[in-house]
Amino acid sequence: MKLDANGVKINLEHSKEIDKSKDYVLFLHGFTGCAEDWFPVFEQMPVKYNYIAMDIVGHGKSDVPSDPSKYNVEAIVNQIKFVKDHLTPNKIFLLGYSMGGRIALSYASAYPDDLKGLILESASAGIKNDEERQKRYEEDLKLAEFIETHTLDEFIEMWNDQELFNTQRRFSNDKLKKIKKKKASGSKIGYANSLRGFSTGIMPPVHDKLRKIPLKVLLITGDLDTKFTGINARLAKRFFKAKHKIVRNSGHNTHLEDPKRFIEIVLNYLGQF
Questions:
Q1: pLDDT digits (tens, 9 = 90+) for 21-71
Q2: Predicted local confidence at residue 163, as pLDDT
Q3: Which three-class secondary structure state does DSSP give residue 273?
Q4: Strand locations in 98-240 (E)
């Protein structure tokens, strides 16, 4: 299903027929990911909810605008707002991983009344320090240039070689090849402009808004991802009401590395409503 959100066509994926009497859970993928990344999760979830995954602008089957302003926080939040209002007038659950988690948190800060619940996997609330934020933005601009001057295969090889994804080296060679091939089928323009428009270095930090989000928030990280587990341990204290769940023997992408435990945690959370 594709929706035209202010001139940008946004693709939505769902694995089962939509039942408008059920609550919606909207899933947001990470950088270089796509909506279909969530299908293995959907297959193991109960039929109690509608599960919808969105291709974030520049990714998957959504449009790939050449204008970086279509990728900034305001534009993406507005795209999600359009999607949400098209799906239902009721409140939804929003779940985001990594970059998708930053987007979900930005949305919750702007439209808390649209949400019934918020689930953030390996996410952050942005960078508070101005100098650190500027440094990160400059690094991401260089990364955007790398994408444009190299093949996507070369970029994905370099991207996946980060320490952040070390734990995925435990996967079989066949599984790793499939993951890299899928990411390399994306768009150079989309990936580069995502960095230019929604880098952690340019995203307005929302730390001071967390207390004003009147929701039960679920934070999920892997214990082997010490950086984001530390970030989320601190974030949990800043929300009005939040629980931080840590997946043992897992890294940055817990839903890929330990889907069974990830789904168990999410379902326990949803069961509170």
A1: 999 999 999 999 999 999 999 999 999 999 999 999 999 999 999 999 999
A2: 87
A3: coil
A4: 115-121, 216-222
User: Token pair of 87, please?
Assistant: 């799906």
Q: Which residues of 20-38 are buried (b: 16+ CB within 10 A; e: fewer)?
A: eeebbbbbbbbbbbbbbbb
Is residue 94 classed as helix, strand or coil in its secondary structure?
A: strand
2-127+204-270: what fold?
Rossmann fold (3.40.50)
Full-model pTM: 0.95
C-beta of residue 254 within 8 angstroms of C-beta of residue 224: no
HSE-CB at 8 with a 13 A cutoff on CA atoms is 27
Q: What does the domain layout of the chain look like in residue ranges?
A: 2-127+204-270
Phi and psi for 67 in degrees, rounded to 5?
Answer: -85, 115
**Tokens representing residue 111 in the block:** 């439209």
Say if CB 121 and CB 98 are below 8 A apart: yes
Per residue in 105-114, pLDDT (tens digit) is 999 999 999 9
Identify whether the C-beta of residue 117 lies closer than 8 Å to the C-beta of residue 215.
Answer: yes
Structure tokens of 123?
């996410």
Contact 26, 103 (CB under 8 A): no
Over range 235-245, report the average pLDDT: 96
The mean pLDDT of 257-271, rounded to a whole number, is 96
Q: What is the mean pLDDT of the chain?
A: 95
Residue 174: C-alpha distances to residues 152, 158, 170, 181 (Å): 19, 18, 11, 11
All residues at 6 or more sequence positions from 1 whose CB lies less than 8 Å from its CB, including other chains: 11, 12, 13, 14
